[in-house]
Every structure is written in structure tokens, then in C-alpha cells.
Amino acid sequence: MKLDLGNPLTSSEEHQSDTITYLFASEFDHMPSRNLLNFLETCDHFYVSFRQEAISLILQAQCSCNCGPFIPYLAVNFMDRFISRMEIPQGKPWILRLLVVSCLSLAAKMEDTDFSISNFQGDEAGFIFDNKTIKRMELLILDTLDWRMRSITPFSFVHFFISLSQLKDPALTRTLKDRATEIIFKSQNEIKLLKFKPSIIAASALLVASKELLPLQFPSFKFSISAFECVNEENLLNCFDTLREMVENENGERQC
């Protein structure tokens, strides 16, 4: 069954309980463990550079394989969760390449997308993996992630939080969603955001987008989200500040 990042649940899970309640209750299982954040926050050079290079390769694959943004996003999600639970041996650069290829392959399968990894292999590093090797790595990733591949991401909560805005204009709603989606995609590179739950990132991205596009509605939207019982207001404000800083830095770079 094709994965929809906006609604990652299977039909059987949707019938078992209220969808949004289930998502809030389960999202922690789809986050990287605290180990990865500890490594990155203490500036562990190996894990910082490993993650940066892996994300760079995944984004390169998006261009060379001509796939949409959701496959790379899902691949990074798999990669972050995997390296937070599995110790990565140093001095073996081929492991990074194999992990990237396997995460992309799994993400493409979840998206039910025709995706030829051959376009991405055989670059300047000279690492080319056969199908058997990739499948073994895929199984290791699946086992490490407890086969939780229908990832609950910030996209899973966007529709719910938009409903709290009470916007009546479909065009404004679409514009707000598109801008928040853009912010969420870019936020995946930001190490500081790994500690926040997907729901908090979604809510914060929508607030940043709202402050940009709909400043008059921003205070009431912020109040509605903050008042929701599953939202920790302190985490929301911290995440909002981090995302806003990220966006401001990006805008500053464009002006230079």
C-alpha cells in the first residue's frame, strides 16, 4: 500500500482508533533516538560529517534520479532513525554510500515509485553495490527500525493544525500549507530540530508561515495551537524560534 506522508496509517489502523489521536500517541516511535542528538549536539565530528554527507548524497540522488521531494525526505528519516540506533563503524566510507542507497530504495518502495538507483551509483567514489548487497542492508534497516516504515512525520499533522486556523478561503489555506511544506522540507537539515516531535515541527512551520503570510491571523492561530492538549507550549515556542531563525538566515543569504 502506497505511503501518503500526509496520512501514513493503513486503513485498518484508521478504523482502530481516532486517526489524529493515534498519530500523536505513536509519533515518538518514528523519531531518532536521543543518542543521535547527543552525538550531534556535542559536536561529534564523525556523526556530524556522516549525517551531512549522507543528506548531501540523498539530495544529489533527487536530482540525478529525477524524483520528487518526498522520497529524499523519507530516506533521511530512515537514515536518521537507523544511525541513532546502530553504531556506525568509522573508516569505512562505503557504509555511508550503501546506507544512502538502501534508504533511498526503501523510500521509493514505500512511495510505490519507479526508482532506478543505477543512475545514482558509480560516481566518483567508485562504490557500486549489487542488488543482493542492497537487499541485505535494507533488511538490516527494517529490523533496526522494527519495520516501522510508514513514518509519522510533520506532514502527518499539517492538515489537522491547519483546521485550527479556521481559514475560510481555500486559496489562502493552500498558500499557507504550501509555505509550511516548504519550511518542513528545509528543516530536515537542521540538527537542532531533531529533538522536537513531528507534530511540534508541523505546528511551528505553520506558525512561521502564518506570521509571514497572514500576520493578522497569526495571534489567534498561535493561541489555538498552543491550547491544544497534545501540544507542549514551551517546545512549540522553542521550535518556532528555531525555524524562524532558519528562515531568516536563508532570506539573508538570498539578499547577499
UniProtKB/TrEMBL annotation:
Give the Cyclin-like domain ranges: 56-143, 159-245
Tagged with keyword Cell cycle: yes
Q: Which domain of life is it from?
A: Eukaryota
Per the record, the GO terms for biological process are: cell division
Which keywords has UniProt assigned to this entry? Cell cycle, Cell division, Cyclin
Residue ranges that the Swiss-Prot or TrEMBL entry lists as coiled coil: none
Gene3D superfamilies in the record: Cyclin-like
Using the record's annotation, list all stretches that form the Cyclin C-terminal domain: 152-256
The record, for SMART domains, names:
CYCLIN (SM00385), Cyclin_C (SM01332)
Protein family (similarity comment): Belongs to the cyclin family. Cyclin D subfamily.
Q: Which PANTHER family does the record associate with it? A: CYCLINS
Q: How does it assemble?
A: Interacts with the CDC2 protein kinase to form a serine/threonine kinase holoenzyme complex also known as maturation promoting factor (MPF). The cyclin subunit imparts substrate specificity to the complex.
Name used for this protein in its record: B-like cyclin
